[in-house]
């Protein structure tokens, strides 16, 4: 049985229940958009700045890297 949150997640377990109340949310350095991220307990949380009450998406470092690489390559460009 996996002991740590990271081991549980890597084993395909549920997402961790992170305490985001004290998270330091960061916005784009360009000040554009509504997405904010926070680094919490080895994970990356992402939320909508305009609706912070909606649960944040939680990524492992590997998931976050894949997301960022795909975004840079235009995988999510809808135009």
UniProtKB/TrEMBL annotation:
Family annotation (InterPro entries): DUF397
Pfam family for this entry, one: DUF397
Domain of life assignment: Bacteria
Residue ranges of domain DUF397 in the record: 25-72
The protein, known as: DUF397 domain-containing protein
Organism encoding this protein: Streptomyces sioyaensis
